[in-house]
Amino acid sequence: MTIDASSRCGVGVCNDNVQFYQDNGYLRLPLQAHGMCQSLAELQQWVADIFQWGLDKGKWRHYYESINDKHILWDTEKLIEYHPPMQELLTGDRPFSLLRALTGREMVLFKDEIAWKMPGGKGAVPHLDRPAYSLFAPEFVEIMIAVDAHTVQNGCLEFVPRSHKEAVPISADGRIEPAWLEGKEFVPMLLDAGDILIFNESMVHRLAPNGTDQRRAAVFGTYHFDVSQPDLRDRFYAHRLIYSPPENAWVEEAVSATQM
Ligand SMILES: [Fe+2]
């Protein structure tokens, strides 16, 4: 569904924001402007609660990474069923109002997670997020909520502004062709805790490792545009359980997921 441009200046987003997003492919908004949560302390408490979640089976999904022989939490997915405030944060009126204003389209939550980026946490080479999820959603938009400040030192996202408008060549292994990257300037997306950053599946980005001794966490909500598939998130997570299982994967659910 396409929404008339005249109705696009919704809560927290003005016409300049819409223009900036469409021109550059991203938008940063401070907590006071996006209004997705009442306070930073509240958001940080929710995230602290989720960090304590154990390796229960059949619930949320914990993924880990190995850093210098340490096994550290990297990502926790499929949150909203188990945390009502996080569900409201990512599926309440405010995120949809913001995203409708920027994109002019309706959308449905596709993926929800916390990227922990613990001290020493790995970075990522330049990439688009599109190839990772294109089997399910050819187009999507992401809201990243900074739980901690994001700096160059702790591995903030770095964007190539306006790359969302380019036909970026992707090789068979999902990487951006090196020739396209030559001479491109990556701009660090510096964020204060509580800020949000919105971008879509076609933004070229990279991340440095977290070189500090402090966590650099972010909550992500990813939204697809095919409103005829309200259960796409369920099918995506069922598929992911088999092909990209978390630390707390369980055989019984993986088997039943194949029958969906
Ligand atoms: Fe990415």
Automatic annotation (TrEMBL):
Annotated signal peptide: none
Co-factor requirement: Fe cation
Domain of life per record: Eukaryota
Segments forming a coiled coil: none
Gene Ontology terms, MF aspect: metal ion binding; oxidoreductase activity
Gene3D superfamilies, per database record: q2cbj1_9rhob like domain
A Pfam family that the UniProt record links to this protein: PhyH
Transmembrane segments: none
Family the entry assigns: Belongs to the PhyH family.
Protein name, per record: Uncharacterized protein
